[in-house]
Amino acid sequence: MHTTYIGFGSNIGDRIDFVQKALYRLSKTEGITIKEISSLYETDPVGYEEQDKFLNGVVAIETHLSPHTLLKNLKEIETAVGRRHRARWGPREIDMDVLIYGDICLQTPELAIPHPEMHNRRFVLVPLAEIAPDLKHPLLNKTIQFLLDRLEDGYSLEKIKEHDFISDS
C-alpha cells in the first residue's frame, strides 16, 4: 500500500457539489481508502487569471493501484462528475492531480510524480500542510511545511469549509 496525496479543485458552477461528488466517487473506488481530507480553501486562479476563484483541497489516500492506474481512475471520476476539457489552466468543474505517491519519483508523458509545480503553489501547499506538514517532498527533501513557510508567491486563499463534505451523491 502506498500513501498518496491528491490535489483537487473546482471553479465552475456549484463548486462544493463537484468536489463532494468527486470525493465520494474516489471513496467508492476499489483499491483506494481515503485516510484524511483537508479543509476547502477558496483561492485565486493561477496561470490563466481571468476566471472565477477555485475551491481547492488535498485528500490523503492509501492505495495499491499503480500510479498510472490511479491517474486513469482520477480521469474517469472527473468525467463522471461532469468535467469538460477546455484550455489548459482554464475553468473546470473538477480537477484531480496526483501530488505525491509514496516516495516514488516518476516522469512520463502522462504523469509526473511528484507534481512538478506543487512546491510553487500555495493552493496545494496550504491544504497539504494542514493534513501532512511533516511529509517530505521526494525530490526536494524538504517538508511541506518548510516549503510553505518559504513560499513567496503573492497569492491569497481563505479557508471556507472544514473537512466534513463528502456526501452520498
List keywords for this structure.
169 residues; alpha+beta; Alpha-Beta Plaits; six-stranded antiparallel β-sheet; two-stranded antiparallel ribbon; globular
Describe the structure concisely for a colleague.
With 169 residues, the chain is an alpha+beta fold.
3D shape: globular
Q: Please report the number of helical segments.
A: 4
Characterize the biggest β-sheet: 6 strands, antiparallel
Span between N and C termini?
27 Å
CATH superfamily: 7,8-Dihydro-6-hydroxymethylpterin-pyrophosphokinase HPPK
Structure notes:
The protein contains 4 helices and 8 strands, in the order E-H-E-E-E-H-E-E-E-H-H-E. The longest helix is centred in the middle third of the chain and has 15 residues. The chain has 169 residues and is α+β, with helices and mostly antiparallel strands. The two termini are 27 Å apart. The strands form 2 sheets. Strands 1, 2, 3, 4, 5 and 8 form a 6-stranded antiparallel beta sheet that branches. Strands 6-7 form a two-stranded antiparallel ribbon. The protein has one domain: Alpha-Beta Plaits (2-Layer Sandwich), CATH 3.30.70.
Write the layout of secondary structure elements.
Blueprint: E1 2-10, H1 15-27, E2 32-37, E3 40-43, E4 54-63, H2 67-81, E5 95-101, E6 106-107, E7 112-113, H3 122-131, H4 144-149, E8 157-161
